[in-house]
Amino acid sequence: AQTVTQSQPEMSVQEAETVTLSCTYDTSESDYYLFWYKQPPSRQMILVIRQEAYKQQNATENRFSVNFQKAAKSFSLKISDSQLGDAAMYFCAYRPVYNNNDMRFGAGTRLTVKP
Amino acid sequence: KAGVTQTPRYLIKTRGQQVTLSCSPISGHRSVSWYQQTPGQGLQFLFEYFSETQRNKGNFPGRFSGRQFSNSRSEMNVSTLELGDSALYLCASSITRAEYNEQFFGPGTRLTVL
Questions:
Q1: Contact B105 A44 (CB under 8 A)
Q2: A7 Cβ under 8 Å from any chain B Cβ
Q3: Does A111 touch chain B (CB under 8 A)?
Q4: Buried-exposed string B47-60: b where 16+ CB fall within 10 A, e elsewhere
């Protein structure tokens, strides 16, 4: 079974600083997608960034970037120049391309941004 | 373009009742996925519908069912409600099959079972 682990239930960062959220996953699949979703207090989930497993280059979206280590099955999210609006629950998610390709989510990391 | 809408936003039911939740995807999106979110279990995949057919199903009992209409709107039904069914139910839509495309989430329906 594929599982996603986020070992940090809560994280805190000072505004304008950088923070890294950890995610590891377990899978025997070779083709899959990894995602980071953000869920602000208003509840609507928003996709932050997506990584295809076959791509070696780490995905980047403005202030958000990932460190994808396929052999280590690690997929961390780095938020640079943190802003107050970044405060939210962050979920790491995994989805195989084939074979029972339901989405699996981690338990989430609550990020607090201090002014 | 309007986002994913879910109705109702809040619902209170009692054990043994059944409930139907509705999800309207973004215009042009053909895939709708449903998720259950609880403090204890986190986010869990329920099922995905694409072109009116269930494509994937998570590990939930048969009390949880769904369907998709020709206009891509989807409904989720839970029969014989249990206390543990209390959760936030999220639906997400994508242009085609969810694994290939970004999913856009709705605000959710908060179901409370008493």
A1: yes
A2: no
A3: no
A4: bbbbeeeebbbbeb
Parallel, antiparallel or unpaired: strands A3-5 and A24-26: antiparallel
With an 8 Å Cβ cutoff, is A38 touching chain B? no
φ, ψ (nearest 5 deg) of residue A62? 55, -115
- A104/B103 CB distance under 8 A: no
* The pair of three-digit structure tokens given for residue B69, joined into one six-digit string: 């209409």
Closest CA to B104 of A107, A42, A40, A44: A44
**Cα(B108)–Cα(A40) distance, integer angstroms:** 13
Which one is predicted more confidently, A54 or A13?
A13
Averaged pLDDT, A13-18: 97
Question: Can you give the pLDDT at residue A42?
Answer: 73
* A63 lies within 8 A of chain B by CB: no
* CA proximity to A60, closest of A70, A68, A49, A46: A49
Closest Cβ–Cβ partner in A44, A100, A108 for B42: A108
Q: How many CA atoms lie within 13 A of B106 on its CB side?
A: 28
